[in-house]
UniProtKB/TrEMBL annotation:
Gene3D superfamilies: Tetratricopeptide repeat domain (1.25.40.10). This is Tetratricopeptide repeat protein. TPR repeats lie at residues 50-83, 119-152, 153-186. It holds the Pfam family TPR_8. InterPro entries: TPR-like_helical_dom_sf, TPR_2, TPR_rpt. Keywords: Repeat, TPR repeat. PROSITE patterns: TPR.
Amino acid sequence: MVALHRRVLESRPDSFRGWFQQAEELKCQGFLIEALHSFDRALQYYQHDYYSWYYRGQILEEINSFLEAINSYKKACEIKSNNYWAWYNQGCIWQEKIENYQESIVCFFNALKNKPEDYWSIYHLAKAYYAQKKYLLSLNYLQQALKIRPHDYWSYYWQGVCQQKLHQWQNARYSYQKALEIKPSDYWTLKQLATLAEIQCLYQDAIAFYSQLEEMGEDTEDIYYKLAQYHQILGNKSQALHYQQLITTKSC
């Protein structure tokens, strides 16, 4: 197929279609640099093609040229503002690779204009606002995400984190427990529940959560220290001594 397109180009060197088709084929076969060159040649003949700029952005993103990819996606959006993917992909790069959360927010809002109720754009907006420490806004978008995906572990987990930041202890506990229902024995959720119990001085609960982590093989010195400390507070002297001895053994 690539050879056929090259023959077409030999006879029709001014063909946008020929360069575009060759670029698509090269991209599909994994020849990314060659595909990028072909899209560039296609754009020399027709600069207002949405797909050439969009696919060019995909390639640049794949080869880790993130700022160039953003510029390519921006050109695609200038040509066709009512698209979803060029806005969404651009938003992901701003958020995950460059950590410019305000720019990512703009992009995800535009993506939502063209694909309302899109879980991923809403979830990324929640993460962007969380990164900006705007926890109420983040919480709002996480709750929207959960309306779309009621059994989503990550939305419940981050909802708990936001509620914890806002000192909504009971709400945070509920969110973490919902996350744990979806993903039982999850280290991070159990760790957050243990931390929450510590904050509320619920030492028996903290012991229960840290014991679960210990049973999962998370026998770190920190967990032993916490278990020793809280057993001591509750007057469980033999248990406190047991974990103090484990700490000593692990330190040797």
